[in-house]
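$ run holo --ligand "iron/sulfur cluster" --emit tokens
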Amino acid sequence: MTRFDDLADAVLAGRVAGADDALDVLRATDDELLPLVAAAARLRRKHFGNTVKVNYLVNLKSGLCPEDCHYCSQRLGSQADILKYTWLKADEAVEQATAGLRGGASRICMVSSGRGPTDRDVERVAGMVGALKAEHPDVEVCACLGLLKDGQAERLRAAGVDAYNHNINTAESHHDDIVSSHTYADRVDTVNRAKEAGLSPCSGLIAGLGESDEQLVEALVALRDLGSDSIPVNFLMPFDGTPLEGTWELTPGRCLRILAAARFVCPDKEIRIAGGREMHLRSLQGLALHVANSIFLGDYLTSEGQAAEADLELIRDNGFVVLGAESVAASVEGADSHDPSKRRRGAGTDLPANA
Ligand code: SF4
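-- output --
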């Protein structure tokens, strides 16, 4: 038994993990990493079994945002070479969402850049949601449109939106170092508006923004206190052309520890490995699924993820099933199409070795 097993026992028995516990998790040594994952996995299994919730992002409106979030490729003045376009039409949004549903997603996240929607924008999204739900009545829809004003959360709820995402992104004590065009309180206000309107609150963070361990824990505890039902954990993708260009603070092991800390602090909440999964977890993505219980399928808002099929393979290979498709048993799918590719380089050839 390690101290992380003791902590898992205590949390399973109903104790709330404190900031000190979370700090201890973040500071686990490399030798302790596997026992830590195993302990966090007990909480994950207790609340989510062997399922992975698969989400799919549709970027309804990309780039050209007037806000100045330092981490964001869509921010004011961003020189990142990303796609920029204004609102998708309803049929385009439905087409994109349908591709994600076909790929195995059960939740569609409809996202737009910007400080927050106008009432007209809200009506536009309400129309999209209506059209999507008419074709796919079981789909869960999460909207992510920025800061909400009076009545907007209620309108989205009435239109059939199930959840609203608005990340706090970082600790209150670090917020003003990463954005100046709105406040931490603005962000919390929108999460509360969503909650009060009956939308499931989705709020998470971005790790690797220069925050301290204490600030990471501060953010996790804040998310628990905020009552966030699902917690996307993003790992900073430092786009060239943004203020955080070249910021590279994360290792795969650090990312695992962050996910484990999130699991201990919020044991029964949906912990989603979000942006930066492939870039930062790299070969530890599989281990991370034993701690988190949700991922995005395919691409992110302005960057490409790994192939969607590789995401599904990751789930199957680690013994999990896609939530909503539990009847599809783990299989040796793909085995029939994997004739090994023959070596044509290195010894016996004139070509350089693969080394
Ligand atoms: S408000 Fe949203 S889209 Fe705009 S810069 Fe901030 S994170 Fe990016």
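-- notes --
Residues 53 and 294 are 4 Å apart (CA to CA).
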